[in-house]
Fold this protein.
Amino acid sequence: MSRTVATILLAFAGLACTEPPQEVFVDSRGTAASDALRSTPGRSYERNFVFATVTGDSLLLVSWLFETTTQPGTVVRQARGWLDRSGTWDAFFAERWETPPTRIPARILPRGSLRLVARDGNTVDGIIFDEGTRNLELALGKVLIQWGGPRGEVFQLLDGSLYLSDRRLGGIVLDMARGSSADSPRAGDWAFLTSGDSLQVVLQGESEHQGEPLPTYRGWARL
C-alpha cells in the first residue's frame, strides 16, 4: 500500500499529574532533574517509546513501555517490550522488580536482557534487547517536534532506527512521559497515528474510559 496509516491504541490507563512539567519529569533529551522527583510515596511515572515503520506492504511496530511507582521504602518498576509485524503482536520482554528509593524515580533502568544507551545521566539514546539468538536495538535520532500537555505530560517525535537481527530499518519514534501523584486523576488511553512522513498525530484521553460520559481527547499533530 502506498499510504499506510498506523494506529496504536494501547489500552494501558495512564497516570496524569497536576504539577507543571519542569517539576515532574526529567526532560527526555537531558534537562536536569529537580528535587520534586524524590521518591515520595504514591507517585507514578510512565515512559513509553513506540517505533513505527513500513516494510513492503506491512507495518512494523516496536513498543517499549515503562512504569515506575513509588511506595513506602521501595520503588516498583515494570518494563514491557512488544513487537508487531503485520498485526501479530509478540510480547518479547516483561519484567517487574523493585529497587531502593531514589532521588529520581522517573529515570528508567536496565534489567536483564534490557539495556539502555544513555548519556548525561538520563538522555536515552537507545534501547537494546539481547537474549540468545534474539536481538533488537532501537536507536533514537534527532527530535522532530515536542509537545507538552496541561498536566505535565511530554510528547516527542524523533527520527529512529531499528536494528532487528541483521537488518536496519528507518522510521519514526514517539517518546512520551507522564506521571501522577496519589490524589490526581488518571489520564486515559493514548494513541499514535502516522501516515508516512506526511502526518503524525498523538491523542490522549483526559480521563479513564469508565462508561458514560465518554472522556474528552486532546490531540497534537505534525503535518
Remarks:
- The mean pLDDT is 81.
- Residues 19-183 form a domain with the AttH-like fold fold (CATH 2.40.370).
